[in-house]
Design a protein that fits this description.
Layout (H helix, E strand, L loop, with lengths): L5 E6 L1 E5 L8 H8 L1 H7 L3 E3 L5 E5 L3 E5 L6 H28 L5 E5 L12 E8 L4 H14 L1 H4 L3 E3 L18 E3 L9 E4 L7 E4 L11 E6 L8 H19 L12 H9 L8 E2 L5 E2 L1 H19 L6 H17 L10 H14 L8 H9 L9 H7 L9 H9 L5 H15 L3 E3 L3 E4 L7 E2 L9 H9 L14
Parallel strand pairs: 10-11
Antiparallel strand pairs: 1-5, 1-7, 2-6, 3-4, 4-5, 7-12, 8-9, 11-12, 13-14, 15-16, 16-17
Helix pairs in contact: 3-6, 3-13, 4-6, 4-8, 6-8, 6-9, 8-9
């Protein structure tokens, strides 16, 4: 497939730390956070002028879904724009709380596990052509998705050692430890239509949000939420390369992993990448072996086909360096780019200075603070300001993406939303439909995710007297 649509959905953890007046529950904190959204939009589930979607998910988790993008670089920028928008809400909520006499602070964390052991996700979306044999693609992609955590995991401390899971125990919990992934301990199946109780790697619900005769959506839900721009780029870029090879029937080895849940957990809790798991044919393998194969194949594929976007060389380089870092134990190869390595370096530095280990409360606090999306308060933001993080996208581009859509169908949605709001017209939108509630006969259907021009929309905006202009203003005022 020459062109592809990407999207990322991220659920955020929310917490209020009280000082003075009593605590706020997550539900109360979420209501405070979304007050500007509800005041402006009369809903806590909205599509924004940048084409993305913001809403409160189950369990009072704020969730941001990026607009559909036609490049991994745009997907990365739109993902960071979600943090920018939500941090704006945090700052507004903080001002309102202080005016009401509350002295505590609201925190939003871009991570995947809370202190009670609940997991919340980061989902990736990749558009596929309908003619592709989905079941074959899915079977072949799952071994890659199981093992890619050694490159793109967010990292997690385990104060009591690796946990035990019913049906797939790693044995008696050992000493405090560190793992590649936050999400791996909570995934149970390779694929299914479920997303919560029996979380799969790939959700097979067929919701293309496009012309269903032409496209379908690969919905990947086992990935970690990433703070590092480079990690997000690698996660999307490497996965897209494997998808492209599978679509082209490029020769890849078959790795049918016998027990998905066990393999995910064994891999996550072994930082050498050499932990063995069973394949269905009676043999065994490890994560490094599988990822070396995919990386070598992708390198050869690109040598033959040529890079299909400007970031391909960097994706292949970082992919290879991440595998080298795991194999050699030398994380200096990636400790400004890959989340699990950046965080591990930070935590190990504090341990070397006297912290007791991964079970030290200070280490636990730093682990969580790494994921604080506030660029001034969060550990990731601090490291970035000190030049210890490799950033790929300028902050001005992120601010622009927070209020302006990418060059896909999202541009039509953004134009429609801005015009309807300016005209005071009630409207309803989703990923495909644009409707003025008072003119239902003028509903516009946008099935082509690559469409950026639409004559029907032009006529409708003209009837509203809308004048096109670039938007820089936050949508929450």
């Amino acid at each position: 497939m020459e062109r592809r649509i990407f999207g990322i959905e991220t659920e955020f953890g929310i917490r209020y730390i009280p000082r003075g007046l009593g605590p706020l529950s997550p539900e109360e904190a979420a209501r405070k956070l979304f007050k500007p959204v509800v005041d402006t939009w009369r809903s806590s589930n909205v599509f924004l002028p940048n084409g993305g979607r913001l809403y409160l998910d189950v369990g009072s988790h704020p969730e941001y879904a990026t607009a559909e993008t036609a490049s991994i670089r745009d997907a990365l920028t739109q993902d960071k724009a979600g943090e920018y928008l939500l941090n704006d809400l945090v700052n507004q909520a903080q001002d309102h709380l202080e005016a009401e006499g509350y002295k505590g602070q609201i925190f939003l964390f871009k991570n995947n596990v809370d202190s009670a052991g609940n997991s919340f996700g980061s989902h990736e979306n990749y558009m596929l052509e309908r003619k592709v044999e989905f079941s074959r693609l899915m079977r072949s992609l799952i071994p890659f998705l199981i093992t890619r955590q050694i490159m793109v995991g967010a990292g997690k401390t385990h104060p009591q050692g690796p946990p035990q899971w019913g049906g797939c125990t790693l044995g008696t919990p050992g000493p405090p430890s560190y793992s590649f992934s936050q999400r791996a301990d909570y995934i149970w199946e390779g694929s299914s239509t479920a997303t919560t109780r029996a979380r799969p790697i790939i959700n097979t619900r067929d919701e293309p949000h496009a012309d269903a005769s032409l496209y379908r959506r690969m919905h990947v839900i086992n990935g970690d939420s990433n703070m590092s721009q480079a990690t997000t780029l690698l996660k999307l870029g490497a996965t897209e390369l494997v998808l492209r090879m599978l679509e082209d029937y490029y020769p890849l080895n078959t790795y049918d992993i016998k027990d998905t849940a066990t393999a995910l957990r064994v891999i996550s809790h072994d930082l050498t990448g050499t932990a063995i798991f069973d394949l269905s044919n009676g043999t065994q393998a490890n994560a490094l072996t599988l990822q070396r194969h995919y990386h070598q194949a992708a390198t050869q594929y690109i040598e033959h086909k040529g890079p299909h976007h400007p970031d391909v060389p960097y994706v292949l380089d970082l992919w290879g360096r991440a595998l080298d870092a795991v194999e050699t134990g030398d994380t200096s190869l990636i400790d400004t780019e890959i989340d699990w390595a950046i965080k591990k370096k930070l935590l190990d530095t504090y341990i070397a200075r006297g912290a007791h280990g991964y079970d030290d409360p200070k280490i636990q606090q730093l682990d969580l603070a790494y994921h604080d999306i506030d660029p001034e308060r969060g550990i990731f933001g601090l490291l970035s300001r000190k030049g210890l993080i490799k950033n790929l996208v300028e902050q001005t581009d992120i601010a622009h993406a927070a209020v302006n859509p990418p060059a896909t169908r999202a541009a039509l949605r953004g134009r429609f939303i801005s015009a309807a709001r300016a005209a005071g017209e009630p409207f309803t939108v989703d990923w495909v439909h644009l409707k003025l509630n008072n003119r239902p006969q003028h509903t516009i259907m946008c099935k082509d995710p690559f469409e950026t021009q639409n004559s029907q929309l032009d006529e409708l905006l003209s009837s509203l007297g809308h004048k096109e202009k670039q938007t820089w203003q936050t949508p929450f005022i």
